[in-house]
Amino acid sequence: MRLAVLSCLLALSYVTAQEKPVILCGRQLANARVLLCFGAEYISKRSRLADYLGDQLNEVDWPWGGRRGSLAANWSRYKRDGLVDECCHKPCTTDVILNYC
């Protein structure tokens, strides 16, 4: 786990020092987003983030027939590019990741 945090920190410090766009995918992209948006303590303590997200999901009043109906709704015509499109399919900077906080 510490190796993942260290690699994210090194990747992010490299990006911020040189401002060269990099490609991040999968766990590296997720860790970079959590590190930039929430801070380093959330990477090492997944239970805190899971508890926070769990509370948020429980508080949501699901329109469109409950959670299952919301997830099954056809949102394809409202699709917009996401963080994966911005940073995994093409190079991105920390500013792009910060837009998704």
Automatic annotation (TrEMBL):
UniProt KW keywords: Cleavage on pair of basic residues, Secreted, Signal
Keyword Secreted attached: yes
InterPro entries: Ins/IGF/rlx, Insulin-like, Insulin-like_sf, Insulin_CS
Residue ranges of domain Insulin-like in the record: 22-101
Single GO term (MF): hormone activity
Gene3D superfamilies named in the record: Insulin-like
Record's GO cellular component terms: extracellular region
Predominant location: secreted
Residues forming coiled coils: none
Subcellular location: Secreted
Signal peptide: 1-17
Family under the similarity heading: Belongs to the insulin family.
Protein name, entry field: Insulin-like domain-containing protein
Organism: Chrysodeixis includens (Soybean looper)
Native organism taxonomy: Eukaryota, Metazoa, Ecdysozoa, Arthropoda, Hexapoda
